[in-house]
Amino acid sequence: MGEPWQEWTVDDAAGWVRAPHAGDDKYSRGVLGMITGSPDYPGAAVLGVDAATRTGVGMVRYIGPRGVRAAVLLRRPETVTVSGRVQAWLIGSGIDPGRRSFMLQGDLQHALASRVPVVLDAGALDLVGTHTAPTVITPHARELANLLVTREVEVTVAEVRADPGGWADRAARELGVAVLLKGAVTHIADPDGDRYTVTADTHWLASAGTGDVLGGILGALVATHHEELALNAEVLTRLAATAAWIHSEAARRASAAVDGGPVAALDIAEAVPQVIGGLLQR
Ligand SMILES: NC(=O)C1=CN([C@@H]2O[C@H](COP(=O)(O)OP(=O)(O)OC[C@H]3O[C@@H](n4cnc5c(N)ncnc54)[C@H](OP(=O)(O)O)[C@@H]3O)[C@@H](O)[C@H]2O)[C@@H](O)CC1
Ligand SMILES: Nc1ncnc2c1ncn2[C@@H]1O[C@H](COP(=O)(O)OP(=O)(O)O)[C@@H](O)[C@H]1O
Predict the structure, then answer these.
(1) What is the mean pLDDT of the chain?
(2) β-strand 118-120 against 178-181: which pairing, if any?
(3) Which residues line the pocket of ligand 2, CB cutoff 6 A?
(4) Can you give the pTM of this predicted structure?
(5) Counting ligands in written order, which one lies closest to the CA of residue 122?
(6) Nearest atom of ligand 1 to the alpha carbon of 96
(7) Which atom of ligand 2 is nearest to the CA of 182?
(8) Is 21 annotated as a binding residue?
(9) Where does (6S)-NADPHX bind (predicted)?
(10) Contact 147, 171 (CB under 8 A)
């Protein structure tokens, strides 16, 4: 038996955000490398880069096809689109695993050989287990069921939806990585038995691209905590829970700003700095 599930609170989240200090520069704060988006899904890259930038990372290095780079730069001109050293990778949002170009395969191999912590999302979930760096995966129920089936664990989407905690936990043990299973209640588990939940405050979150925003928030938190992660890889689950909490709270604030009305993915990214400001004041 692992630990009981613990709902991640505002005070828990406040322990995992930090403001830069006088001695910092963009590199010491952490650089997030992102291999996301594709000609079919350029928006996923734009959403993830915007969310990561607004979470307060030192630099985002975006690696992707020319047209997607242009879209990213139009929204976030501070993004650097040349390769270089990074402290963490976010890989897979908006990538079709069945349509990886030769160039993309090379970029993926290079990223996964670099041994810095990795967030694997959407079209990169199949890469779990191909590298040794600390890893957190961010599937929704269908993606988790598909991934487990490829690893010879018989499970259906309906079964994952009926027992998300049990399957997040099982996946963490089977795959040997931290798992953030998305849903109205997000379950975060790791192979050592850490288990956290984040219960979404608003169901407006159930719309296209909000998962890409969550990936950006998490990637930024992982990059900015690279020093702690180098000492203790278990920190990944706490960063994942914090990312889910910030995401939920940003959606709540964005909806509250329109009297409880609908929010779209970019609205959530735009609310992130205020959420982080509030956490820093605690
Ligand atoms: N702006 C962007 O760039 C965005 C990019 N995104 C990126 O897209 C990629 C794919 O992610 P995803 O989670 O959407 O796809 P996936 O897990 O393959 O599920 C497909 C399943 O859905 C079902 N289905 C489809 N239509 C349906 C319908 N009308 N009503 C009911 N069911 C329907 C379909 O069922 P079928 O039609 O086969 O019966 C199939 O089972 C991923 O890389 C992500 O990052 C997204 O974040 C969005 C914003
Ligand atoms: N019914 C719901 N209520 C609240 N949050 C939800 C609900 N359904 C999904 N979410 C959240 O919305 C996000 C959807 O992410 P994802 O499924 O990856 O979508 P996309 O691929 O379109 O970005 C996740 O953060 C998930 O936890």
Answers:
(1) 97
(2) unpaired
(3) 140, 182-184, 186, 200, 203, 205-206, 208-212, 214, 247
(4) 0.97
(5) 1
(6) 43
(7) 27
(8) no
(9) 44, 94, 140, 212
(10) yes
Among protein residues, the one with the nearest Cα to ligand 1's atom 22 is: 142
DSSP secondary structure string for all residues of 26-74: HHHH-EEEEE---SS-HHHHHHHHHHHHHHT-SEEEE---HHHHHHHHH
Residue range 6-280 in CATH 3.40.1190.20: yes
Per-residue pLDDT reduced to its tens digit, 59-68:
999 999 999 9
C-alpha distance from residue 48 to each of 11, 137, 158, 252, 265 (Å): 25, 15, 28, 19, 10
Establish whether 26 is an annotated binding residue.
Answer: no
Domain ranges in the chain are: 6-280
Return the closest-CA partner of residue 44 out of 152, 123, 141.
123
pLDDT at position 37? 98
pLDDT in tens, 133-170: 999 999 999 999 999 999 999 999 999 999 999 999 99
Nearest one of 202, 196, 274, 191 to 241, comparing CA atoms = 196
ipTM of the complex in this document: 0.95
C-alpha 187 – ligand 1 centre gap (Å): 21
Report CA(224)–ligand 1 centroid distance (Å): 30
